[in-house]
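As promised in the previous annual report, we have extended the structural survey to additional targets. Below is the entry for Histidine triad (HIT) family protein.
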Amino acid sequence: MSDCIFCKIIKGEIPSTKIYEDDEFFAFKDLNPQAPIHTLVVPKKHITSLMDMEEADAPLMGRLLYRAQEIAKLQGLGEGGARFVFNCKGDAGQTVWHIHCHILGGKRLDDGFG
Ligand code: 5GP
Ligand code: ZN
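The corresponding C-alpha cell record, generated without further manual editing, is:
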C-alpha cells in the first residue's frame, strides 16, 4: 500500500529505529512509547487489521506471534514478561491501518488492559 506509513517504514522510506528484520517481519521502536520498551512488530505483507486477516494469513500471523515473543526476549523482557497487544479498528483505538503487534514491557504494567 503506497500511502501506508508502516509499509513506508518497512521499505526505509520513513526512518525508524529497527529492532529486528527478516523476510516476513519488521520490528521497530514505537515513536510514542507507552512503556520503557515499546516495540511494534509488523508483517511485511500489508494486512489492514487483525479483524481483516484471511484464514490464509493464519500461518503468517502464528509466526508473527512466535517472532514477537523472541523479539521481547531479545530486548531483555524474558524474565519480567511483556504485554502483546493488537488494537483492532476504531473502538480499540487503532490509528495505523497496517496490522501490528505492540510489545510493551520494562516496568510493571499495573494499568489493567489499557
Ligand atoms: P495503534 O494505535 O494503531 O495500535 O498504534 C499505532 C502506533 O504506531 C502508535 O503507538 C504510534 O505511536 C505508532 N506510530 C505512529 N506513527 C509512527 C511512525 O511514523 N513511526 C513509529 N516508529 N511509530 C509510529
Ligand atoms: Zn502497510
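Residues 1, 4, 6-7, 46, 98 surround zinc ion (ligand 2) (CB under 6 Å). The two ends are 29 Å apart (CA to CA). These points will be discussed at the next consortium meeting with the crystallography subgroup.
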